[in-house]
Amino acid sequence: MKNAYHLELEIGLYQHRKDTHDVVVRFTDLDPQVEGGPPPEHGLVRFDFEKLRELTLNPIEYGKLLAQNLLADPAIKQIFQETRAVAEHTDRVLRICLFIDSSAAHLHGLRWETLWDDSNDTWLIANQRILFSRYLDNTGWSQYRLRPKADLRALVIIASPAELAEQPRSLEDKRRQLAPIDTTAELQRATDALGLVEHGGLIARQIVSDGKTRITRKLVIKALQEGYDIIYLVCHGALLSLRKTLKDEPYLYFEHDNGSIHVVAGKDLVRQIALSEPSRRPVLIVLASCQSAGSGQDCDHYDGTEQQSDDNGELSALGPRLVKAGIPAVLAMQGNVLMSTVAAFMPEFFKELLRDGQIDRAVAAARSQISQAPDYWTPTLFSRLRRGSIWLEQQVPGGKDFEQSPVNNYDGQTHPQAVAQTRVDDLATSKRSRIFISYKRDVEPDQSVALEVYQALRSEYNVFIDQVMPVGTRWAERIDAELRQADVFISFLSFHSVHSEMVASEIIRAHHFAALQGGRPAILPIRLAYREPFPNPLNVYLDPINWAFWENPTDTGSLITELKAAISGQPLAIASNEMKAQIVELSLSPLIQPPTPSAQPIRLEQPEGTMDPQSVFYVVRPADAIALEAITRQGETISIKAPRQMGKSSLLQRIIDAAWASGKVVAFLDFQEFDKTVLSDPDIFFSQFCAWLTDALELENRIDQYWTSPLGNIKRCTNYVERHLLKQVGKPLVIAMDEVERLFETEFRDDFFGMLRSWHNKRKVGNVWKNLDLVLVTSTEPYQLIASLNQSPFNVGEVIDLADFSYEQVAELNRRHDSPLNSSDESRLMDLLSGHPYLTRRALYLIASNRITCTDLFAHAADDQGPFGDHLRHYLFRLNLRTDLITAMREILRLHICPDEQLFFRLRGAGLVRREGSTVVPRCQLYANYFKERLDD
After folding, report:
1. For a disulfide at 898, which of 282, 421, 894, 904, Cβ 3.0-4.6 Å?
2. Helices H, strands E: what count in the chain?
3. What rounded mean pLDDT belongs to the chain?
4. Nearest to 121 by CA among 67, 47, 187
5. How far apart are CA 519 and CA 619, in angstroms?
């Protein structure tokens, strides 16, 4: 009997060095009767971009070279050939999923659909035995609705402006002369394939350019809001740069009311879909539009010298943007597609799709119909459908008709989405699943529980736990490799570990891989007698997913049982918001604490996180007085600049308290809470920025009213703040923004910060803008990233550069810890740490709390398991992800130079280096000692 279970081959590509890429290949047999499977295979690949460019007019030779490049590593080629052999021997379908990491986004410009099969001397994916789709990097998970086939509704849009052949002179010369679309023929093909609802088909609505109906932007957006499962859009499109300051953007050719051409930004459609309810978003969008999957030429400009952003080049196209906006499946066109190819491809595609709903199989069947066409490779499928089907196979009474897919949330706020709770059931196909255990070493109960769980799981699973820390960068590479390969990520979270920089890095990295790899590793957070809310940024990743809870050692046995069940596919016990609320105990303390009597013993405080402004351990620096005096004035702009862990957020909290005390209203925004995809699209960002402000001020949301204006984002946002927020607040308003450096790498940074500068300048007029104060906090030097200083808000008003502690401040902090150091030890600590605020507080806390002696602290300061080991390993792990930063750090350690200013400012912003005159040196002796040993070639 034929085996109905598919074989799955996942191919992951990641930037390694400037001229090489990591490739990870994983084979999975989805037959539940098959136990185990080979571990993922790792290798290196080099793409001959120059030769591929030369072969763009010869798709067969292009596909041969691309396949040779991809399979050049013998180990990768072997697993690929073995998988093919298994599929052919068992007469089973092979599903190939291509994951391209955001670090290697330029690889989407390659024509992967041309891959050539030398063994059969034909295209690799020209039949229904091998199915192929691309996946995109993403940061969150959301639910999408699958309905039974009988309930599906389709929307068909065919746009052909009456004046299509007459190109406006204002358009750039790069645009092609476009022929009118045969709307009658296209509609007939769609109707024949999908059918009208009244005849038992799917088309619930059709809007077509016919001389009477104009396919305007407004009409299309209104139709999209009605909610359809399938959208089929036929129109001309292109990737264009209509403004000199922007890179190529997707545009579609719609109509004005008079029938003339209206070149509409594809982002408008993306935004409307993204802001809709997830349950009303389409499951499938088909774009019969040129360059809707990319130009197919992105690598023309790639020479391996730099990484390209995942929202430039190919991924700026409409198809990939729709996937990132929450659409589970998008079929788009890479490059320019012939209408004859569309005419041959689409009817076969829809006919096959309606057989079983399997979109990748339907694409394969339709592609076989155009195998002789010169643009055979143009149809490109981006899919996040777990089972490949666009409809619900069987409606279960009382059951859920939702699936989960790695998409982002665009609901106008910043609610995080669950990342690795789904696809845990897939792990059951492998008896020896790979488990990664994350915990904080040398603290209890973390270490004891982690080791006991490790011993209990190791007989059944391949379990990695960091017990021995080898010296050198290979340690960081090993951690990253284990995270990438893991099926399950178990994180033990206690009062101590939630503030561990290394634990946080592992959680964020696991979340990153889960988004790339369809939910692997599944993240299983275990609260170890910890009942407080997760601090930022852990709350973003852990709040939306299920937890387990451990109270004391008597719970360890039941925890192990629960973890084994979770590895086999069962969810962790604490799932609902109500259950989580019973676990979490909110600590509600007044903002201002009464002073501690001098006779009362000193109560030590953990040095991690933002400090209470009234803490006895808060060291007031000269910058504090400047900032606190400035916030009492009206209409001020305050910029706080300093590297990581300098106390910026703590000072910001003092400023906020002072603002409230002076009668001002405060809206606090932490830019860490903006997800990556929102930061890739200015249309989404500016509207969400206003929505966030509105929510912080607890005012009525009027975003839709202002965003219907044809004005640009800056003007919309400015009008919203001026005419709605400032007017409704009616009192002086402070907008306090932390971590604003997250915007420095966006394409719209100049627009956003230029807007803030314009708000600052408007105060001179003496109008309502005098009631607005701006407070910005950044760890990165903005002067290197903002094009015009006249458009920067960071060089006006009060500009505060926080400095490390002076010797006198270190001595005062020692006194507040009840003087655990003598004067000689104070000098040694200053020589070692150079007044680093966080490390100084940590050293004094450890010694004052008798967790370490002063002698041992200095003897083991630069050890991986020493008093600063968690902090230092975190930096080493993060550096390992950027080879360019490692190279720059080596030059600084050896030669005290850093020729690349961008790399210097990155390292300085991270708090690792500083400038002394014309030389660049490690920020403190501790960093010099640690990294000199571990980064040495």
Report:
1. 904
2. 30, 30
3. 80
4. 67
5. 44
Is pTM beyond 0.70? Reply is no
* Residue with the two structure tokens 């790695």: 406
pLDDT higher than 60, residue 60: yes
Pairing state of beta strands 261-265 and 249-255?
antiparallel
Residues in the chain: 937
Report percent pLDDT > 90 for the chain: 29
Mean pLDDT of 718-731: 92
C-alpha–C-alpha distance, residues 309 and 770, integer Å: 38
Q: pLDDT digit string (tens) for 799-834? A: 998 889 999 999 999 999 999 999 999 999 999 999
For residues 844 and 814, is the Cβ–Cβ distance under 8 A? yes
Q: What would the DSSP string read from start to end of 713-734? A: HHHHHHHHIIIIIHHHH-S-EE
- Whether the per-residue pLDDT at 599 is higher than 60: the answer is no
Q: Which two tokens stand for residue 76?
A: 């990768």
Residues in Cβ contact with 475 at an 8 Å cutoff, skipping those fewer than 6 apart? 469, 864, 873, 876
For residue 544, cis peptide bond before it (omega within 30 degrees of 0) = no
CA distance 823 to 156: 79
Amino acid found at 806 = S
pLDDT tens readout for residues 62-72: 999 999 999 99
Q: Environment class of residue 352 by beta-carbon count within 10 Å: exposed (0-12), middle (13-18) or buried (19+)?
A: buried
Torsion sign (Cα): 350, 352, 358, 363: negative
Q: How far is CA 841 from the centre of its chain?
A: 32
Sign (positive or negative) of CA dihedral 685, 875, 838, 782: negative
CB 313 within 8 A of CB 105: yes
Strand intervals (E) in 209-258:
230-234, 237-240, 249-255
Q: What residues have CB less than 8 Å from 367, skipping those under 6 apart?
A: 113, 123, 125, 126, 345, 376, 379
